[in-house]
Amino acid sequence: MSYERRTADFRARIAAGEKIEATDWMPDEYRQAALKFIEMHANSEIMGALPEREWIPRAPSLRRKMSLTAKVQDEVGHGHMLYRVAEDLGKSREAMIDDLIHGRTKFHNVFHYPTRTWGDVAVIGYLIDGAALVTQRALLDCSYAPYVRVLRRICAEESLHQRHGEDLVLELCSGTAAQRALFQEAVERWWDPLMAFFGPPSQPDKDVLLHWGLKVKTNEQLRFEFLSTYVPKLWDLGIRVPDDDLGYDPETGEWRWTEPDWDEFWQVVKGHGPMTETRLALRRWMQETNGWVREVMAEPTRAIA
Amino acid sequence: MSAASTGQPDLRLDTADPRLVLLLALGDDELVLGHRHSHWTGVAPHLEEDLAFSSIAQDEIGHAVVWYGLASELTGHDPDALGLGRAPHEYRNAILVERENGDWGYSIARQYLYDTADDVRLSALADSAWTALAQATGAIRREERYHLMHARTWLDRLAHGPVEARRRVTAGLSAALRDALGLFEPLPGEAALVDEAILPTSHADLLQRWLDLVAADLERVGLERVLEEGTSLADADFVPTSSGQMEAPAALSAPHLERRADRWEPVGEFSGHGGRWGRHSEAFTAVWEELTGTYRAHPGARW
Amino acid sequence: MSNRWEVFGKRTADDAWQAVGAVQAPDEEVALLFAKESFFRHGEGVDVAVVRTRDFHVSGDPDLLAFHTDKSYKLQSGYPLGDKRRRAAEHAQALGVVIADRPRPQDRRTRNPEHRSSTSHREASDA
User: Fold this and answer.
1) CB atoms B43 and A293 under 8 Å
2) What is the dihedral angle through the alpha carbons of C107, C110, C113, C115, rounded to the nearest 10 degrees?
3) Where are the domains of chain A?
4) ipTM value of the model?
5) Cα distance between residue A52 and residue A69, in whole Å
6) Is the pLDDT of residue A252 over 50?
7) Which CATH architecture has domain A13-289?
8) Which of A43, A172, B240, C119 could tie B248 with a disulfide, CB 3.0–4.6 Å?
9) How far apart are alpha carbons B30 and B67 in whole angstroms?
10) Distances in whole angstroms, Cα of residue C51 to Cα of each of B131, C12, C24, C57
11) How many domains, chain B?
């Protein structure tokens, strides 16, 4: 059977809602798109651990210190599972980490920014994780079965993080004036990166991920779900969103919102965000100084004594 | 290291009750080591191990909560105030746990030396005449069993691994050993604790038990010579943390270790004062500021 | 990827082993340690097992397991009974042989609590 014919059959399987397994034949374009997408997701999980881990040593209570450590641990765990799924598409974990730390592959825009206060921990736990949960839940219907299986587990853990994040937010919002201010100020700093997180408007006819069923919802749809879920909750808490035009229009059934600076978005994801170099340098340094540990873990035990 | 710049006054404790000193020593060891361990979360040298070491960090902080919980009953102060609200010289942790993480060889060496020492200490406390204390050891020991397994697994892999790994873990053990002896520094008021069987075994006797255990492990992996370096704990970088009235006493000096007949033994006594008396190394300054900063900046806040 | 291990877990003691994921480790002892941390952090099970991925042989051949001739008699779905039940009941009605005058429990699972002790020597079958 010709490559074109097999590819057409493969497309038909996806169109019929079938799921693809790692051992199935797949067109090179699909394999590359899936690998790139899942690799970036894995990268984002382990890079996403960095901004939050900075607040583990400074957590304000013993319980928060434990729960934040456990939450960051889960993010690393997600990276671990996702790298395994990506690995089966034909690239070793070592190669993926090497590409990440040398800036050859990408990770989500929101993990290029600094975390300045405990309010940032609440924003990440509630709103960034909330945004991630909206996008990840949508991916449960995507075409690559091993990814879906891992996403089921990730979504279950992210739901826990969601509660953890809401718990953080509720304490700050019902706490002292200084605590409320921590959250309000953090929301203001994070809002634009958060809107940019969903990406610029999708172009379905050009989007290779939508084409292969690796994504099933457009960026607009995901942003709509996020705004509909979280903006009313912020309003209920008396937290102001720093976009004067933000509002739901019952006539059109759409949210009005101000587009973030897309040039900044592209600069950030290309590796020129405020914290990109610092965080990649930390990972590079850890990778370079700890090669001897990985050697121990890679080799079967040898007795030299 | 003053809390004067914040609105939260340091918590002052009356430590005349030696039971409180014991609980603070236990809790502060766990909290400060858990704090140090947690620095590896997200940046450990191996992805799966990142998850493993993070669990150990969480467990240790959880154990601190158990000990501070008992201390709450004695003092009326909640565990957060006890763990995050005291002035630096009120912390009773051994100096071992406050040191920088160093490289992975040091971190594993310290985890091994600490968790073996904690095991010896907890198995003695399981027989404490203070039943609440004895009961608290139950859940903690079930988690510590896994910490020991983790520590021994890594010790074996590094010691039997490529030559660089063996060099690193040897260096880590050598660097940590002298501080580890400080875990057995006698507590202020220890005689009364031993008399009442609250601490059923003195720290001097616990030290010998621990040495037997560690010597056996190190012999198994061919690193017994590390013990030859366990001579003195005296160190130049202690921070004077006198409470104001008196001159800072001399820094802690530990017994040295000697191989006698068929076992390693501590020779001599502890002299001077270390972590159990609130005397800490320079490294503690950074730990204390990070650990307590957010809590102290928001007096009376709930989180 | 010779240091890859497949991880299996049991949710309860009487559960069968279920595949939960994979870890990288140099030997089985470390693999078990990492498996615990990777997949059982939230109380997901009571036991864990690992096997080297290279010792895990996948057929990858759906043909091996597929039915090639009619094997519907091996499946529940091979026995559609709805119509047959209705037809048999109608037939019995038509023959006038239905035994309708005996008392029947209203619900085949709920016993009358008042008679619980007196019937203990001879339990009515559920079926």
Assistant:
1) no
2) 60
3) 13-289
4) 0.94
5) 9
6) yes
7) Up-down Bundle (1.20)
8) B240
9) 9
10) 44, 20, 11, 11
11) 1
